[in-house]
């Protein structure tokens, strides 16, 4: 074979030709889409792990794509569709680099495999194209249309671009929010398994199928040139469905044999002897509708058998452990924990991972955090073939690894990208959990992960994580299981922070009633839902109901948790906001106003609950007309919040709004207006113009402005 391209095609035919090494890397997600993973640190480089070394086929489609870039055309959408593992991502990767290196395009690469990955990636695109932090915060929290923000900045791009939406196997996700659009400034390329034209109106569709027999045989011979004849390679390629991913793995297996090299004839005989070969033969037809997981499962099992024969059972164990999780980037730090000993010795994890990497069974990817990522087809196949007696230990190990990665007591703090990376794996584990005990443990981790996301201000991810976890847990544990109800409660708390009070109220009412009936009024879970419900009622203007519920919550937490527990002090702190001035002087025999000092003694001066108590105490002082004391205290709180959370964080803006009130009350009207103008501007950018907090801030600013224009009394 020469290095020249000597193929020829006519009409609608295509030529597939290759020489040397070829690697096809493609990632998929099957089933319900998880929430939220972490956003990529870069969208300028394709997140495909190890790129294909050589791509000598797909010349027709590449020629057409290249022509569109060379001609400077924009406003076009191309869709590459085909079965999993057919090489769509490899074609997109090759075109991406040609467009960026030769076509003077800015390349932008986004995983569209699930709703969370698409949203995070597209917001990263908006950031790349000039969106500021406050706009991104609003979009992340679902408080302004995220897709509109992204396309606004894409349309305004100073440079022409190429946007790749990779693995868009659930086009409903693109349609929801109108994520897929055209622009006069760039070209969009989509890879997907879904071929129906109704999903891609106005797009130019291109099928990426399995390889022809002869070219599929060449791939095997390129990767394992000394293993057999062209005809033997062609026979194996047929049994493997001529799928590039399966061919790559088979060729890699044959080429890696050192002590006892296999021939293609031996490999073919093993295929004949293994169960499932009949199904593989059926899947060999081009453009078949068979699930690709069944086409390649046997090939992977052969590789696992080779691990066992070589004395590397840990590699098989590690792959089976990964198969309990999601086909998304998994932080390598999770695999370097003592908890992994339940599946394989921690000391052997490095060797096992290297074995998987060497056999193309997983890939290293960098999304700002070093991760390992495996194909969804592979993970589904391995999961289905894992012996039933191994599943409990694997599930328990996966739970323990995720449990160790989530903060034991989530606290308020800045955005943590690691938390989002854990979301799809926690939800995948819930889907695969084979026993009620594993389901319960995984659901507890998912709820705590939702709480951690909530405390960093990522309310939308917190809500989606809790909602999906509750749905998955309910299937095995039942609607009234304690952990299912706790997850529902957490989803309601996130809805409140998103300003969706009318949705949060009925959800929290149902959960609280069920918990009270099942566990009692003083149960910690019941009290937690009660505290969240009173926040909703108070913001809906139902003060009397909210105050009654809050008083009973504070009393119940005092009885159950003790007077110095952070949750007890948090509920008592909330009383400072709801009480009227006369009530403030009589509540708890007049001792409630000393709450900040109680918090300092019990929790320390820098605890989140302590700062919250100072914040609410300043409001109480303002209500009592003690404006100078209130201003001094809320100024300290505002500065502390800015240092810890940033100037755009909702709690920071709440404190700044109170500072403006105290300034106005003390006669510093211009300073108050300046503070509130800043609050309203930041809330409009960060929360959206219709969020209740934005509306309240704008009303206060209007009031202050009208007071400045009012003539002074004689």
Automatic annotation (TrEMBL):
Gene3D superfamilies noted in UniProt: P-loop containing nucleotide triphosphate hydrolases, Tetratricopeptide repeat domain
InterPro entries: AAA_16, NLR-like, P-loop_NTPase, TPR-like_helical_dom_sf
Residue ranges annotated for the Orc1-like AAA ATPase domain, each copy included: 61-184
Domain of life: Bacteria
Chain intervals for the UniProt region annotation (Disordered): 1-52
Annotated PANTHER family: AAA+ ATPASE DOMAIN-CONTAINING PROTEIN-RELATED, ATP/GTP-BINDING PROTEIN-RELATED
Protein name: Tetratricopeptide repeat protein
Organism: Streptomyces tagetis
Classification lineage: Bacteria, Bacillati, Actinomycetota, Actinomycetes, Kitasatosporales
């Amino acid at each position: 074979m020469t290095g020249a391209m000597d193929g020829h095609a006519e009409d609608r035919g295509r030529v597939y030709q290759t020489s040397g090494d070829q690697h096809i890397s493609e990632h998929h997600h099957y089933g319900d889409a998880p929430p939220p993973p972490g956003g990529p640190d870069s969208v300028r480089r394709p997140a495909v792990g190890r790129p294909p070394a050589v791509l000598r086929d797909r010349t027709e489609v590449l020629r057409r794509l290249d022509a569109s870039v060379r001609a400077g055309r924009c406003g076009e959408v191309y869709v590459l569709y085909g079965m999993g593992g057919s090489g769509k991502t490899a074609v997109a990767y090759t075109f991406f680099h040609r467009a960026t290196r030769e076509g003077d395009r800015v390349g932008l690469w986004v995983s569209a495999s699930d709703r969370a990955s698409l949203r995070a990636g597209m917001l990263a695109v908006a950031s790349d194209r000039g969106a500021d932090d406050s706009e991104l915060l609003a979009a992340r929290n679902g408080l302004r249309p995220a897709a509109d923000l992204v396309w606004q900045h894409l349309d305004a791009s100073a440079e022409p671009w190429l946007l790749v939406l990779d693995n868009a196997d659930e086009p409903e996700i693109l349609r929801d929010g109108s994520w897929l659009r055209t622009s006069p400034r760039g070209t969009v390329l989509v890879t997907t398994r879904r071929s129906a034209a109704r999903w891609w109106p106005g797009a130019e569709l291109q099928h990426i199928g399995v390889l022809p027999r002869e070219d599929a045989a060449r791939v095997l011979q390129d990767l394992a040139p000394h293993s057999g004849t062209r005809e033997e390679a062609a026979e194996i390629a047929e049994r493997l469905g001529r799928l590039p991913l399966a061919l790559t793995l088979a060729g890699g297996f044959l080429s890696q044999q050192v002590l006892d090299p296999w021939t293609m004839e031996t490999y073919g005989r093993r295929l004949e002897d293994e169960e499932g070969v009949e199904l593989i033969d059926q899947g060999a037809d081009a453009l078949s509708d068979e699930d690709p997981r069944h086409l390649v499962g046997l090939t992977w099992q052969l590789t696992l058998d080779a691990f066992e024969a070589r004395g590397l059972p840990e590699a098989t164990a590690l792959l089976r452990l990964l198969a309990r999780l999601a086909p998304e980037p998994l932080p390598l730090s999770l695999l370097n924990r003592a908890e992994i000993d339940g599946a394989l010795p921690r000391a052997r994890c490095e060797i096992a991972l290297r074995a998987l990497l060497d056999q193309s069974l997983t890939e290293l990817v960098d999304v700002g955090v070093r991760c390992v990522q495996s194909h969804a087809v592979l993970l589904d196949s391995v999961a289905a073939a894992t012996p039933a007696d191994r599943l409990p230990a694997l599930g328990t190990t996966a739970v323990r690894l995720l449990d160790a990665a989530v903060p034991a007591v989530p606290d308020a703090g800045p955005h943590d990208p690691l938390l989002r990376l854990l979301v799809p794996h926690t939800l995948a584990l819930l889907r695969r959990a084979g026993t009620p005990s594993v389901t319960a443990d995984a659901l507890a981790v998912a709820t705590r992960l939702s709480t951690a996301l909530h405390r960093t201000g990522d309310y939308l991810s917190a809500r989606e994580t809790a909602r999906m976890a509750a749905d998955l847990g309910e299937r095995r544990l039942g609607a009234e299981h304690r952990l299912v109800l706790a997850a529902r409660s957490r989803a309601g708390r996130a809805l409140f922070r998103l300003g969706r009070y009318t949705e949060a109220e009925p959800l929290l009412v149902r959960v609280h009633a069920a918990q009270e009936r099942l566990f009692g009024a003083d149960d910690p879970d019941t009290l937690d839902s009660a505290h969240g419900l009173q926040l909703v009622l108070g913001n809906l203007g139902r003060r009397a109901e909210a105050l009654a519920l809050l008083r009973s919550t504070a009393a119940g937490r005092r009885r159950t948790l003790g007077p110095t527990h952070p949750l007890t002090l948090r509920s008592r702190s909330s009383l400072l906001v709801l009480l009227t001035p006369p009530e403030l002087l009589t509540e708890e025999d007049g001792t409630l106003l000393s709450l900040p000092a109680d918090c300092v003694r019990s929790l320390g001066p820098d605890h989140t609950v302590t700062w919250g108590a100072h914040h609410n105490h300043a409001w109480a002082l303002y209500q009592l007309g003690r404006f100078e004391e209130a201003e001094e205290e809320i100024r300290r709180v505002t500065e502390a919040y800015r240092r810890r959370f940033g100037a755009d964080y909702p709690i920071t803006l709440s404190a700044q709004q109170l500072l403006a009130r105290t300034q106005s009350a003390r006669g510093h009207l211009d300073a108050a207006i300046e503070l509130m103008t800043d609050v309203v501007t930041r809330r409009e950018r960060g929360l959206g113009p219709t969020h209740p907090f934005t509306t309240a801030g704008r009303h206060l600013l209007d009031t202050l402005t009208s007071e400045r224009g009012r003539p002074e009394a004689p």
